[in-house]
Amino acid sequence: MRSRAPKNPLTPLQKRFIRSGFESLDDQETIELLLSLCHPRKCRQLAKACIEQFHGLREFLSASTQELQRAGLSPSCIFSVRLLHELPEEVLRQKIIEKPVYKSAEEICDYLRYSMRDLKIEVFKVIYLNKRNEIIDAVDLFEGTLDSIPIRPREIMESAIAHNATNLIFAHN
Q1: What is the chain's pLDDT, residue by residue, as a tens digit (173 residues)?
Q2: Residue 81: exposed, middle, or buried by beta-carbon count in 10 A (0-12, 13-18, 19+)?
Q3: Transmembrane stretches, by residue range (predicted)?
Q4: Domain that holds residue 152
Q5: What's the pTM value of the predicted model, to 2 decimals?
Q6: How many domains does the chain have?
Q7: Could you count the other beta carbons within 10 Å of the beta carbon of residue 150?
Q8: Burial track 24-55 (b if 16+ CB lie within 10 A, e otherwise)
């Protein structure tokens, strides 16, 4: 019996990505590649419109659901964009949370940098550690406005006690 060729062969853009990765693509082509998964027929036009609206890949990936809807993306495509944006943060979070002992400030900084870089409001994050410097949890404890955030020491202490934390790492964007 002969095997049949797949009904949906790869596009030239997909082939180029498989050959050379993201380095061979500009921001618009990367967005087009992502949109081809949910809007195969109009991915090029949508990618062009998204670049005009968001001015780059990072801005596109960190756009709100409402902004993506206004750009003409379907709910399934918005889901794909949100998933792609939040997946690396989750991987980094698990990497630090599942580590038995906190040893590298660099790993913590990588996680914090990625998780906080695209925030549009002020956020105060707390990483809770036990007495052996094992990471218990990482929580956005306070949120503010565009340029200010109220920090309440009493709530920090109550939260630390609730987590049975003996050490805390604070981060603020």
Answers
A1: 555 655 678 889 999 999 999 999 999 999 999 999 898 889 999 999 999 999 999 999 999 999 999 999 999 999 999 999 989 888 877 777 666 566 678 888 888 888 888 888 899 999 999 888 888 888 999 998 878 888 999 999 999 999 999 999 999 98
A2: buried
A3: none
A4: 99-172
A5: 0.62
A6: 2
A7: 11
A8: ebebbbbbbbbbbebbeeebbebbeebbeebe
Residue whose structure tokens are 């991915």: 43
| CB contact at 8 A, 132 and 164 | no
Same domain, 111 and 165: yes
* 105 in the same domain as 70: no
What single string gives the DSSP state of each residue in 76-127? HHHHHHHHHHHHHHHHHHHHHHS-SS---HHHHHHHHHHHHTT-SS-EEEEE
DSSP sequence for 125-172: EEEEE-TT--EEEEEEEEE--SS-----HHHHHHHHHHTT-SEEEEEE
Check the CA dihedral 11-16-22-28 and report its sign: negative
